[in-house]
Amino acid sequence: MADHSHGSPENAVTVAKPGQGGVQKFQDPGLPPHRPRLADTDPRAEKRAERQVGVLFLISIFGTLLFFFGYFFIPLDETIGTLRLQNLLLGLGTAFAMLGIGVGIVHWAKTLMPDHEVAEDRHEIRPEKDRADAEKIIGDILEESGIKRRPLIRNTLLGAGILAIFPAIAIFRDLGPLPGDVLRETMWDEGVRLTRDPSGTPIKASDVTIGSAFHVIPEGLNEAEHKLEEKAKAVVLLMRLNPESLNPSPGREDWGYEGIVAYSKICTHVGCPVALYEQQTHHLLCPCHQSTFDLTQECKVIFGPAARPLPQLPISVDEEGYLVATSDFQEPVGPSYWERG
Amino acid sequence: MSSSAAGQQYQPKTSVGRITNFVDTRVGGSAIVKEFGRKIFPDHWTFMFGEVALYSFVILLLSGTFLTFFFDPSMAETHYDGSYVPLRGIEMSMAYASSLDISFDIRGGLFMRQVHHWSALLFVAAVSVHMLRVFFTGAFRRPRELNWVIGGVLLILAMAAGFTGYSLPDDLLSGNGLRIIDGVVKSIPVVGTYISFFLFGGEFPGTVIIPRLYVLHILLIPALILLLIGIHLFLVVVHKHTQFPGPGRTNDNVVGFPVGPVYAAKAGGFFFIVFGIIAAISAAFTINPIWNYGPYDPSPVSAGTQPDWYIGWVDGALRLMPGVLGNFPFEWNIPFPWGTNTLSLNVLLPALVPAGIVFMLLFAWPWIEAWVTKDRREKHLLDRPRNAPTRTGIGVAGVVFYCVMWAAASSDLIATHFMVSLNDVTYWLRALLFIGPVVGFIAARRIALALQRKDREIVLHGRETGRIVRLPHGEFIEVHEPVDEYKRYKLVSFDSPEVLSAQPDVNGHVPKTEKRRAWASRFFFEDRVAPVTPAELEQAHSHGHHGEVASEHDKAAISSH
Q: Angle at which helices B94-104 and B109-136 pack, to 10 degrees?
């Protein structure tokens, strides 16, 4: 390629300088000559193309029949296999029906309809005179309405119009209640038992062996009036570690019970359930966006997009040996919001 | 009507008859036929993407209408007692139960669900690829800027339609998607919590979100899409379609096939082909098997789940953002006189900034380019992407930026499939988000410039034939065959804007914005590769040249082979 230096644009000769263009242009040779297709010249090829299109339309008819066969002759029972078979037949039937028509028409167009390219002139989108006329008409309309000359009318109309928009916004006020403090409160309270999710059976401290993890809901959740809303805030993960592995900060030493700790399962990022517990590393991982929390550091964020530790639920045991909460969470659970503070 | 005597004019009695008569005698079908019957449309395979989008939308309307007849968008609790045994007796919403019924108890229901979901995926894909085609070929330039903007709005609406529909079955997967939306909405400063409560009618998940999304999904969004598609196509007719430059194709004409019969047949047939392909995919490949996920419950979540592809880039952005960088937290508690408020930048920034950048640049691009080139003439001839190297580079940078976020939405799957650390995947993608677009820009621009040089080669020295010939004096050469004038014209007849240095205004001053424009112009065009001129071709031919047959004697030697 080295010998092709004349083709190189770095060569000063070949780079057009401003003002040089225009005169040095190739002549447009016009549309290339039309090349006849086989079907244009050979009557047998034409007949063949005609038959091919016909066969494609016949395939479409076959497809429609296949659809009806699947629809009427595959009775749905309770196995997923027949459903799959019916879906396959309906789908393939439709596919053949549609593709037969589509490919047939396109083949028809490409082989048998004229393929001469035609040129059509473009026109100005609108003549300039129209534009001038339109400008004058609008000017006349504005003038006759007098809106420019009568500022009182203009300003009051403007004010009225702007104000009239607000009811259209305000009327949506009842879409929902005001947030209030509900995001700060959950069903947890002093003495509320920790129960298994979803059965609702209480958990004894002795059931929780070292290394195990429980998905927990507060007692009575399944009977609660707003079950899903309460559950969306109250779900908890319960794990037991060797007490030496936990490093509670001052004031939180008695929030666990013999190495059993409970943390909110709702991610502090955007609220997915932090459902994955890595038993060996004591990490909690959110499967949605991979925020990782370290259980041995009070669920501090060690990786991912979350910015806050998971809130801890203070727990203890009651006289029957069941795990209970000693209070609600000390901070709002779940994703951050403006009023969280 | 029977009472009207023979020979009298038709006198409609019913209101329907009057409307029919009115339309028939006043609209005049002949004018429409005259306007459209032989209208010319240029033909190119890249012009099909818009058609795919239109047709998949039609299929969405057809399959969606079927689904509305059986779907119940209610969040009222029920116990499932349909055909699918594993979920019998389970408590779930009416929305989920009726989605299961559509799948298991309505014949063809599952097929229609599959068709609807697959065509939704195809719809957004086709809109996206269509927009890339328009961008890379410069079809957004005057007079089509507004139609480009309409296309951008349609892309946003397509994603909104997809997301609202994705949430309707109220299964575990879509419920978690809604929860993420709730988390993102709550991060909006000042009004976020209120928007969340108004949207969900109280606390998440509430009992109103599905019916509300349903109204948006089947009424408001499709109506807007339909309206904008109407305007979009109307403007295509007003502007007439663009075409690639070539012999006989100028800025002042349209070369192609007439609507009737060729184009109508091809485009009409293509609708059936798109439908057929979607049907074949729906027959063979399961999409969104909601019965595997179970009803929505705020506690469980399945690992390795993915949003629909078009939401992936936003989800990926959420994953890439670090919550804490070193010791710098992205969640700020800001003390105000009335109390402390929380600003959650770790959610807000990735949710808003990348999408903001992409769509701002997208909407503004026609005007940015017109400002740089100061060229405000009508452009009906397209650019081959190589002939606009800087634009192509910027487009590729945008695609890379998007694709890194898109890949990040699958970071967990990348980690498990390739057995690498999830954390490392995230770190690499974080770096790639910034480096990738720069590398993409440089590489694409260089490739475009190289292809332009290749085009010059071909025009000046002809096509490499692969024929090696030994000349009488012993030299071996490869025979280059000159291209014919049609092919040559195709390679030389393109727009090639040049650097436009800063122009002084009427007072002889060069304003700052003009200096910036000149800088941008240099950035765009200083490496420009000019099209071959006739003089250059003449020069190339007159030079004795390796690879080309110089003397008559040699020519004779070759032709005897």
A: 100
End-to-end CA distance of chain B: 86
| Rounded CA separation A281/A294 (Å) | 8
Residue at B336: amino acid letter: F
Decide: residue A166, CB within 10 A, 0-12 exposed, 13-18 middle, 19+ buried: exposed
Contact A341 B341 (CB under 8 A): yes
Determine the Cα–Cα distance for residues B361 and B394; give it in Å rounded to an integer. Answer: 10
> Does residue A214 share a domain with residue A84?
no
How many domains is chain A built from?
Answer: 2
Cα distance between residue B126 and residue A29, in whole Å = 36
Residue that is last in its domain, among A75, A90, A111: A111
Q: What's the token pair of residue A264?
A: 């909110």
* B535 CB neighbour count, 10 Å cutoff: 13
For residue B105, the chain A residue with the least C-alpha distance is A76
- In this structure, what are the phi and psi dihedrals at residue B190, rounded to the nearest 5 degrees? 65, -60
Q: Does B256 touch chain A (CB under 8 A)?
A: yes
pLDDT in tens, B485-523: 999 999 999 989 999 999 888 888 999 999 999 999 999
Residues of chain A with Cβ-Cβ distance to B40 below 8 Å are: 118-120
Please state, as a whole number, how many other Cβ atoms lie within 10 Å of the Cβ of residue B109: 24
Per the listing, tokens 């079927």 go with B66
Domain boundaries, chain B: 37-383, 453-559
Residue for token pair 């419920």: B175
- Averages of pLDDT over each 10 residues, chain B, 561 residues: 51 73 68 77 93 97 97 95 93 96 94 97 97 97 95 97 95 94 95 96 95 97 97 93 93 90 93 98 94 93 86 95 91 92 95 95 96 92 95 97 96 94 96 97 97 94 91 90 92 91 88 93 93 89 56 51 43
Whole-number Å distance between alpha carbons of B331 and B323: 7
A208: CATH: 2.102.10.10
pTM: 0.90
Are A87 and B111 inside 8 Å of each other by CB?
yes
Mutant choice from A25, A72, A107, A117 vs B, greatest count of B C-beta within 10 A: A117
Residues of chain A neighbouring B261 (CB-CB closer than 8 A): 109, 113
Within 10 Å of residue A268's Cβ, how many Cβ atoms? Answer: 31
Angle at which helices B48-68 and B221-239 cross, to 10°: 150
Q: Which amino acid is at A250?
A: P
DSSP reduced 3-state for A294: strand
* Residue B259: other Cβ atoms inside 10 A: 18
Residues 62-91 of B with CB under 8 A from A: 83-85
Q: Does B318 touch chain A (CB under 8 A)?
A: yes
Q: How far apart (Å, rounded) are the C-alpha atoms in residues B78 and B99?
A: 13
Residues of B whose CB is below 8 A from A88: 283-284
Cα dist from A316 to A30, A115, A163, A193, B295, whole Å = 90, 85, 58, 9, 33
Kind and range of the H or E element at B467? strand B463-470
Task: Count CB atoms within 10 A of the CB of residue A126.
Answer: 10
Residue that terminates a domain, selected from A55, A77, A111 = A111
In a domain, A172, yes or no: no
Supply the DSSP symbol for B261.
I
Residues 154 to 183 of B: which have CB under 8 A from any A CB? 176, 179-180, 182-183
Domain B37-383, second-level architecture: Up-down Bundle (1.20)
- Distance between CA atoms of residues B88 and B93, nearest Å: 13
Residues of B in contact with A94 (CB under 8 A): 111, 275-276, 279, 283
